[in-house]
Amino acid sequence: MNRQLLWAGMMVLAAWASATPGLVQAAERAEDLYKTYCWQCHGMQGDGNGINVRDMPVQPRDHTDPREMAARSDEELFTAIKKGGQAINKSVLMPPWDGVLSDEEIHALVRYLRRLCQCRHGG
Q1: Is the pTM of this model over 0.70?
Q2: Which residue, 81, 71, 55, is CA-closest to 120?
Q3: Least C-beta-crowded within 10 Å: which of 17, 19, 49, 115?
Q4: What is the CATH topology of the domain spanning 22-117?
Q5: CA-CA distances (angstroms) from residue 10 to 2, 20, 22, 26?
Q6: CA 62 from chain center: how many Å?
């Protein structure tokens, strides 16, 4: 019976992935973007413990902290990524990624951040 449930679950997942390849690719792309541009400060797991932390006077945000992340709206997160931390009265060490990342990529990163914290704004 366990094998049947496992097989059925795998089939449902495969069907979902094939029916929504754009969503799966976008999620994978956002994770790749995070690992390319964010992990040095925010860490590979998003916990704020990147390799640059020891040289930073301000601790990077822990993107896995649901309480902290729920306090920020998606618009604030978008603005912080696009225009830098200073745009939302946070650290000047958070650079603006406008010109490097498209708005679509930034929105994908915001969705990825919500996956990391497993939270929504205000929740």
Answers
A1: yes
A2: 71
A3: 19
A4: Cytochrome Bc1 Complex; Chain D, domain 2 (1.10.760)
A5: 12, 15, 19, 21
A6: 11
Q: What is the DSSP string of 30-78?
A: HHHHHHHHTHHHH-TTSSS--TTGGG-SSPPP-TT-HHHHHTS-HHHHH
Residue 76 and residue 27: Cα distance in Å, rounded? 20
- Using the structure block, give the residue that is written with the tokens 């059925």: 8
Site of tokens 């603006």 = 96
Beta carbons within 8 Å of 85's beta carbon, 6+ residues apart: 91, 92, 93, 94
How large is the average pLDDT for residues 81-99? 96
Dihedral of alpha carbons 29, 33, 36, 39, sign: negative
- C-alpha span between 24 and 14 (Å, rounded): 11
Residue 94: pLDDT above 50? yes
For the chain, the domains span: 22-117
